[in-house]
Fold each of these.
Amino acid sequence: MKTNLSDLAIFGRAPTFAEKIYVGRPNIGDATRLLERIKTLLDSRWLTNSGPLVKEFEQRVADFLGVKHCIAMCNATIGLEIAIKATGLTGEVIVPSFTFIATAHALQWQGIRPVFCDVDPLTHNLDPARLEQLITPKTTGILAVHLWGRPCNIESLTEIARRHRLVLLFDAAHAFACSHAGRLLGSCGDAEVFSFHATKFFNTFEGGAITTNDDALAEKARLMRNFGFTGYDEVVYVGTNGKMSEIAAAMGLTSLEGMDDFISANRRNYQLYCAELAGLRGLQVIDYNQAERNNYQYIVLEIDQAETGISRDELMNVLWAENIIARRYFHPGCHRMEPYRTLDPKAGLTLPVTEELAARVLLLPNGTAVGENEILEICRVIRLVLGRPAEVRARLAHVQPAQSAQEVVAAAGVAEEH
Ligand SMILES: *Cc1c(COP(=O)(O)O)cnc(C)c1O
């Protein structure tokens, strides 16, 4: 346990952790059960194409979420692309920029312009009032994101979509097992899309799903997922290959059985982080509505440099030197990445909250791979830094220019020898 500022790795000491600690290390359920399922599927020689495990997984997810249809996908990006195509989106679609790049890419990939809308500073989700100002005759839909698993302002978005006759889709990649008004997400808008990527709270190695109560849309998405085939020799739509494999579904079924344990671990960790970081000026851990169900996957810090005296990036560099690989989700915002920054170099002017959040948000490690002792150490480092920001800054300036934490460590080591 580090107790003095000079114990920090940026001052040349050994890092807090011998091995790196990551954001989003996979949660893995009962491995024995998983291996049994894999044995069964190998014996059956049914590896993909809507096999029994995918069917069972879809049914169990639909039952769990309380939604009519779950269409399992090979990943959420293809799920988004199919949902976008199946709902007939064209022209312009309004999306947040403060999200993972796949949200925007799924539109751009099919020649639809993502129109970036700013978010609310408290919820980090689309700001409905700003959104309405961005609607043009070319707008065909809204693709909202339940960021960090915290539900969007669903009522306002639904009302705006209805009034302007827009399709409403939700990127629910973060939001599996999260509720709004007492109902699990998955039934809102025209469709919602979940990600079961390895780094998400609940994984199928790679995977995703479209959920919807719309029978016709579900049918269309199922066809598009499988090249548009309706029978062995009959194709009725342009389609793609979005199928989930049986081994992914085996992992999904096992993850479903382990989900309560994942949530307990995440919630325990979240509460410990909150307790250990409470009362630090200029540093906030985002909150989750305790009256709702949450998966507590994301430990999201907001660092207000004016208050802390240290920037988010400076804190991150200190943490990386300690082998704590904290992450800047979602920096720098989609509008500052290609091709969007070339298409609209001035987009940032209309996205002040996104710009601000992209500069102040930092994610800390969570999940079943992270334990109590690790969290105590991580928080100890953060408290040391925030207690003496000026000295940390001076030290970082001394060891700079450092592009990465490895270089911070290396530079600190070299500096120490002089
Ligand atoms: C992870 C993620 C995706 C993409 O999910 P994949 O399953 O990796 O394709 C899309 N949107 C958001 C917000 C995400 O975090």
Amino acid sequence: MIPYGKQYIDESDIEAVVEVLRSDWLTTGPKVAEFENAVADFVGAGHAVAVSNGTAALHTAMYALGIGPGDEVIVPPITFAATANCVVYQGGTPVFADVDPETLLIDPAQVEAKITPRTKAVITVDYAGHPCDYDTLREIADRHGLALVADACHALGAKYKDRPVGSLADLNIFSFHPVKHITTGEGGMITTDNEELAGRMRVFRNHGITSDYRQREQQGSWFYEMTDLGYNYRITDFQCALGLSQLRKLPGFLEKRRAIAARYDEAYADIPGIIPLSVRLEVFHAYHLYVIRLNSDRLDRSLFFKSLRDKGIFVNVHYIPVHLHPFYRDRFGTGHGCCPVAEEAYQQIISIPMFPGMSDEDVENCIASTCSIIELHFPGN
Ligand SMILES: *Cc1c(COP(=O)(O)O)cnc(C)c1O
């Protein structure tokens, strides 16, 4: 069985975790800041705030920007639900802007069309690991006085015009779930150049309290103040030790993902009915996912999906457009017709296995299996 994504853990990762388990600090210790600094350096951002998962990171970002009832935040529909849910956590309204048909990234023209006097922010999603069109989005955000937030959970290590993802938006969100580029089990981070927002986020992840236990111990003080309602969104030191160890392997992981993508590109280049998503020349793609579109009446996605699963290849669909989920239909009156490009793409997309631990044999097996299904539908090609 080949999953669509999977973590890669080696002995150095295990040793890094064990070392922390033998130390004094399991949480709010030195590894948290060490991991934050390492990620901030890697993406070229001034500050990084680590939290318990990517969803918490999104929520923390919405809090830091002061999103609240009556505020609108523009989001793409082709993403994991958490991208929109974080707006709702704060009482705001997510507004869906359709995607570009070739990349399935949020379409800047659609963003502009959805801006109202209530709009406060735009959340972009670097879907599959392909950075969005940040120059255009930045120009639109600045012209309308909006915050630009990147849900970069797919794109650690990606670049746009040689600038790393993580430094392109006002707040940039990462997840360290096992299927993502590096893992801490569960974990997330926000990177930013804005010191004030970073400070607000550090308080929010710690119940809204202005100092943590270790800071108080160092200061020899018991006094603390809760200045706003926050959450316990802290990450542990052993998770951060794992993250640090994983981050050292990230360049190799990226190289492997890009080599697998290059092999898929080559294999699918002349296969009728299969269209890999477009990749813009100005980007360095991080390939969290390798997504193909089945663009033919002769290829039924459900059948394709089932045939591959029967062969032990656990392809997946990323994503059911968020505005089609019952929660959003019921609460916000979204539904079919709201984002037609995304809705059509959703019928055709399928994610082929992509993770650094794939062997050459796994990759060739995926190619041979997909091509044999195509052969059934396009005999003689
Ligand atoms: C994984 C992911 C999230 C959520 O991250 P968790 O760490 O699982 O909470 C949010 N947005 C996108 C696009 C993701 O892929």
